[in-house]
Amino acid sequence: MHRKLFTSRRSAVLSVCALSSVLLLGGCGSNSDSGSSGSSASPAASPSASSASSATASPSASVESREYTHLMGTITLEGKPERIVAPYLEDALVTLGITPAAKWAYGDLVQEYLEPYIKDVPKLDFTDGLNKEALVGTDPDLIVLYTPDLAAEGAYDQFSQIAPTYVFQDATVSWKDTLNVIGDMTGTSDKADAAIAEYDSKVADAKEKLQPYVEGKTFAVIRAKPKEIQLMDGTYYSGPVLYADLGLTPHKLVKEWSWDYAQALSLEKLPELDADYLFILVQGEQSRPLLEEFQSSALWQSLPAVKAGHAYEMPSNYWMASGAIANSLKIDDVVRTLVP
User: What is the DSSP string of 198-226?
Assistant: First the structure.
């Protein structure tokens, strides 16, 4: 079993929403095209939540013993965690030079863009949700959950019996905050700082290259799922990179209708999406028939972006992820697509 690195106590009164397997797949969509300890990884692409839980080390804690207060309570870490399980936060671990003890998977679906770094890390299958038995098998000494949904219905108490369990409010909203929290807990804050600085430099360089080609233009991202086409929001995953970091102008329908949450886009509403540029994400090949149905319609063919040849399919694997590596890859895609 894991080393005894912690004590954990739950906050007195806290209510969290019920666990939903649908949320896991819906939030982590990707194109679908294993035991390692916390050894170091070498991310080639890594440069690197308002909703991230704040991790504050207690002033009275020594370097070896640190307390972290989070959404569900407080954990105490003694020493440096070495076997870390942080499902769907592997981008942050790899950026920090940490190989996770297990990686997120949904059946055969994995985060393909991270496979060069964690191909041999065993999968933690989320098809039926996250359960205690699966976690025990990974022998972690730190568990990090990106949303309280994963800790609902008594799961937090069960997980805390295995290893100290830190719960974010929503780790996907601000990858920088998330990276800083995990960096502090793992003693890799210097790598977090370096990754953020490198990313910010990349953003500045990309904005300079893009400026002559994007001024006065509007942008939108649509996502094909098996049963619906969505207009993506400006808050999660690709939205903050495009609209906040790179300063691209979101189409008015994004700003007025889908800014906070992705919305189902019907054929009837499609003509309102007269953006100059469209980025298209496909959640697995099972989503392609519905997309092709849209694309074969006269309404789609009449969209300004389509008529101008400015509708581009992008890899949903990392466009529907958040982190230094994923976001850096998105920037590469945008610059490569828009700059002649």
Answer: HHHHHHHHHHHHHHHHHTT-EEEEEEE-S
